[in-house]
Amino acid sequence: MSTPEPARLDGQLMGRVPRAVRQRQLLDVAEKLFMQHGYEGTSIEDVARAAGVTRPVVYEHHGDKDALFVACVRRSRREFEQALTTATAEVAGADVPAVLEHGGRLFFARLERDPRRCALLLTTGSGPLGQRLAELRDGTVDRTAELIAVHAPELTDPAVRTAAARVVVGVAEELARWWLRSPEIPRERLVGYFCTFVTPGFLRVLEEARAQRRAG
Predict the structure, then answer these.
(1) What is the residue-level pLDDT of the chain in tens, covering all 216 positions?
(2) What does the alpha-carbon distance between residue 111 and residue 118 come to, in Å, rounded to a whole number?
(3) Contact 147, 161 (CB under 8 A)
Protein backbone atom coordinates (compact mmCIF):
# COMPACT_ATOMS: atom_id res chain seq x y z
CA MET A 1 0.00 0.00 0.00
CA SER A 2 1.40 3.41 -0.95
CA THR A 3 1.92 6.10 1.65
CA PRO A 4 -0.68 8.88 1.30
CA GLU A 5 0.63 12.28 0.31
CA PRO A 6 0.68 14.69 3.28
CA ALA A 7 -1.94 17.43 3.25
CA ARG A 8 -0.90 20.85 1.99
CA LEU A 9 -1.81 24.32 3.18
CA ASP A 10 -0.55 27.27 1.11
CA GLY A 11 2.22 25.09 -0.31
CA GLN A 12 3.28 23.80 3.12
CA LEU A 13 3.14 20.13 4.08
CA MET A 14 1.08 19.35 7.14
CA GLY A 15 1.49 16.43 9.52
CA ARG A 16 4.14 13.75 9.43
CA VAL A 17 6.11 13.88 6.20
CA PRO A 18 8.28 11.05 4.73
CA ARG A 19 11.90 12.07 4.25
CA ALA A 20 11.87 11.83 0.45
CA VAL A 21 8.70 13.93 0.24
CA ARG A 22 10.16 16.59 2.55
CA GLN A 23 13.37 16.72 0.52
CA ARG A 24 11.40 17.21 -2.69
CA GLN A 25 9.22 19.88 -1.11
CA LEU A 26 12.25 21.81 0.11
CA LEU A 27 13.80 21.63 -3.36
CA ASP A 28 10.55 22.89 -4.92
CA VAL A 29 10.37 25.78 -2.48
CA ALA A 30 14.05 26.66 -2.77
CA GLU A 31 13.98 26.51 -6.56
CA LYS A 32 11.06 28.92 -6.69
CA LEU A 33 12.81 31.37 -4.35
CA PHE A 34 16.13 31.13 -6.21
CA MET A 35 14.33 31.83 -9.48
CA GLN A 36 12.49 34.81 -8.00
CA HIS A 37 15.27 36.38 -5.94
CA GLY A 38 18.50 34.83 -7.13
CA TYR A 39 21.12 33.05 -5.09
CA GLU A 40 22.24 36.12 -3.15
CA GLY A 41 18.67 37.21 -2.45
CA THR A 42 17.60 33.90 -0.92
CA SER A 43 18.47 32.64 2.55
CA ILE A 44 17.96 29.37 4.38
CA GLU A 45 15.53 31.27 6.63
CA ASP A 46 13.50 32.24 3.55
CA VAL A 47 13.30 28.61 2.45
CA ALA A 48 12.37 27.38 5.92
CA ARG A 49 9.66 30.02 6.30
CA ALA A 50 8.13 29.31 2.89
CA ALA A 51 8.18 25.55 3.54
CA GLY A 52 6.71 25.87 7.04
CA VAL A 53 9.70 24.27 8.78
CA THR A 54 12.59 25.37 10.93
CA ARG A 55 16.10 26.10 9.65
CA PRO A 56 17.52 22.90 11.23
CA VAL A 57 15.09 20.86 9.09
CA VAL A 58 16.49 22.44 5.93
CA TYR A 59 20.05 21.81 7.09
CA GLU A 60 19.20 18.20 7.95
CA HIS A 61 17.85 17.44 4.48
CA HIS A 62 20.05 19.54 2.21
CA GLY A 63 22.89 21.10 4.19
CA ASP A 64 23.80 24.76 3.77
CA LYS A 65 22.58 27.20 1.11
CA ASP A 66 25.33 26.23 -1.35
CA ALA A 67 24.35 22.57 -1.11
CA LEU A 68 20.66 23.43 -1.50
CA PHE A 69 21.35 25.54 -4.58
CA VAL A 70 23.53 22.81 -6.10
CA ALA A 71 20.75 20.29 -5.48
CA CYS A 72 18.30 22.50 -7.38
CA VAL A 73 20.69 22.87 -10.30
CA ARG A 74 21.47 19.14 -10.28
CA ARG A 75 17.79 18.23 -10.49
CA SER A 76 17.19 20.69 -13.32
CA ARG A 77 20.20 19.42 -15.27
CA ARG A 78 19.20 15.79 -14.84
CA GLU A 79 15.72 16.52 -16.13
CA PHE A 80 17.16 18.27 -19.17
CA GLU A 81 19.68 15.50 -19.82
CA GLN A 82 16.90 12.90 -19.70
CA ALA A 83 14.76 14.98 -22.04
CA LEU A 84 17.71 15.32 -24.43
CA THR A 85 18.29 11.56 -24.39
CA THR A 86 14.63 10.93 -25.16
CA ALA A 87 14.54 13.57 -27.90
CA THR A 88 17.62 12.29 -29.72
CA ALA A 89 16.30 8.72 -29.49
CA GLU A 90 13.30 9.93 -31.48
CA VAL A 91 15.61 10.62 -34.43
CA ALA A 92 17.79 7.52 -34.09
CA GLY A 93 19.34 6.68 -37.43
CA ALA A 94 19.08 10.25 -38.73
CA ASP A 95 22.18 12.06 -39.95
CA VAL A 96 24.20 14.22 -37.57
CA PRO A 97 22.80 17.60 -38.75
CA ALA A 98 19.26 16.37 -38.07
CA VAL A 99 20.19 15.12 -34.61
CA LEU A 100 21.91 18.41 -33.73
CA GLU A 101 18.96 20.42 -34.95
CA HIS A 102 16.52 18.25 -33.00
CA GLY A 103 18.56 18.66 -29.81
CA GLY A 104 18.89 22.40 -30.39
CA ARG A 105 15.15 22.77 -30.87
CA LEU A 106 14.51 20.93 -27.61
CA PHE A 107 16.96 23.10 -25.68
CA PHE A 108 15.65 26.45 -26.90
CA ALA A 109 12.01 25.36 -26.65
CA ARG A 110 12.55 24.53 -22.97
CA LEU A 111 14.33 27.82 -22.44
CA GLU A 112 11.47 29.74 -24.05
CA ARG A 113 8.86 27.84 -22.04
CA ASP A 114 10.54 28.24 -18.65
CA PRO A 115 13.38 30.78 -18.85
CA ARG A 116 13.84 31.36 -15.13
CA ARG A 117 14.16 27.67 -14.34
CA CYS A 118 16.49 27.04 -17.27
CA ALA A 119 18.58 30.00 -16.12
CA LEU A 120 19.57 27.87 -13.12
CA LEU A 121 21.47 25.62 -15.54
CA LEU A 122 23.53 28.59 -16.68
CA THR A 123 24.58 29.77 -13.24
CA THR A 124 28.31 30.06 -12.65
CA GLY A 125 30.23 31.10 -9.57
CA SER A 126 33.57 31.31 -7.87
CA GLY A 127 35.14 29.39 -5.04
CA PRO A 128 33.72 26.08 -3.82
CA LEU A 129 30.22 26.82 -5.15
CA GLY A 130 31.57 27.64 -8.58
CA GLN A 131 33.56 24.41 -8.59
CA ARG A 132 30.50 22.34 -7.73
CA LEU A 133 28.46 24.03 -10.45
CA ALA A 134 31.28 23.41 -12.92
CA GLU A 135 31.26 19.73 -11.99
CA LEU A 136 27.53 19.56 -12.73
CA ARG A 137 28.15 21.17 -16.11
CA ASP A 138 30.90 18.61 -16.75
CA GLY A 139 28.28 15.94 -16.10
CA THR A 140 26.12 17.41 -18.86
CA VAL A 141 29.16 17.42 -21.15
CA ASP A 142 29.81 13.76 -20.32
CA ARG A 143 26.20 12.84 -21.05
CA THR A 144 26.37 14.73 -24.34
CA ALA A 145 29.57 12.86 -25.23
CA GLU A 146 27.73 9.58 -24.58
CA LEU A 147 24.97 10.65 -26.96
CA ILE A 148 27.58 11.59 -29.56
CA ALA A 149 29.02 8.08 -29.27
CA VAL A 150 25.56 6.69 -30.05
CA HIS A 151 24.71 8.98 -32.97
CA ALA A 152 28.21 9.38 -34.41
CA PRO A 153 29.95 6.03 -33.75
CA GLU A 154 32.72 6.95 -36.19
CA LEU A 155 34.12 9.20 -33.47
CA THR A 156 35.88 6.48 -31.51
CA ASP A 157 38.41 8.76 -29.79
CA PRO A 158 37.02 9.73 -26.35
CA ALA A 159 38.95 13.01 -26.43
CA VAL A 160 37.33 13.98 -29.73
CA ARG A 161 33.88 13.13 -28.40
CA THR A 162 34.50 15.19 -25.28
CA ALA A 163 35.80 18.12 -27.32
CA ALA A 164 32.72 17.95 -29.56
CA ALA A 165 30.43 17.76 -26.53
CA ARG A 166 32.07 20.82 -25.00
CA VAL A 167 31.53 22.76 -28.21
CA VAL A 168 27.87 21.69 -28.42
CA VAL A 169 27.14 22.53 -24.78
CA GLY A 170 29.19 25.72 -24.85
CA VAL A 171 27.53 27.17 -27.94
CA ALA A 172 24.04 26.28 -26.68
CA GLU A 173 24.63 27.80 -23.26
CA GLU A 174 26.22 31.01 -24.56
CA LEU A 175 23.37 31.54 -27.02
CA ALA A 176 20.95 30.89 -24.16
CA ARG A 177 22.60 33.52 -21.96
CA TRP A 178 22.36 36.01 -24.81
CA TRP A 179 18.71 35.12 -25.41
CA LEU A 180 17.83 35.65 -21.75
CA ARG A 181 19.15 39.21 -22.10
CA SER A 182 17.58 39.69 -25.55
CA PRO A 183 14.28 37.78 -25.51
CA GLU A 184 13.02 39.64 -28.58
CA ILE A 185 15.17 37.39 -30.79
CA PRO A 186 12.94 34.71 -32.40
CA ARG A 187 13.56 31.17 -31.17
CA GLU A 188 13.99 29.87 -34.72
CA ARG A 189 16.86 32.29 -35.23
CA LEU A 190 18.62 30.91 -32.14
CA VAL A 191 18.17 27.36 -33.40
CA GLY A 192 19.60 28.48 -36.75
CA TYR A 193 22.61 30.09 -35.12
CA PHE A 194 23.24 26.95 -33.09
CA CYS A 195 23.15 24.71 -36.17
CA THR A 196 25.20 27.13 -38.27
CA PHE A 197 28.06 27.36 -35.82
CA VAL A 198 28.10 23.75 -34.56
CA THR A 199 27.23 21.55 -37.55
CA PRO A 200 30.09 22.40 -39.99
CA GLY A 201 32.81 21.67 -37.46
CA PHE A 202 31.08 18.48 -36.38
CA LEU A 203 30.83 17.29 -39.98
CA ARG A 204 34.49 18.06 -40.61
CA VAL A 205 35.57 15.98 -37.61
CA LEU A 206 33.31 13.17 -38.80
CA GLU A 207 34.80 13.23 -42.29
CA GLU A 208 38.32 13.16 -40.86
CA ALA A 209 37.40 10.14 -38.73
CA ARG A 210 35.90 8.36 -41.72
CA ALA A 211 38.97 9.13 -43.83
CA GLN A 212 41.23 7.69 -41.13
CA ARG A 213 39.15 4.51 -41.04
CA ARG A 214 39.35 4.15 -44.81
CA ALA A 215 43.10 4.72 -44.73
CA GLY A 216 43.60 2.32 -41.85
Answers:
(1) 344 444 444 445 545 678 899 999 999 999 999 999 999 999 999 999 999 999 999 999 998 999 999 999 999 999 999 999 998 999 988 999 999 999 999 999 999 999 998 888 899 888 999 999 999 999 999 999 999 999 999 999 999 999 999 999 999 999 999 999 999 999 999 999 999 999 999 999 999 999 988 886
(2) 6
(3) no
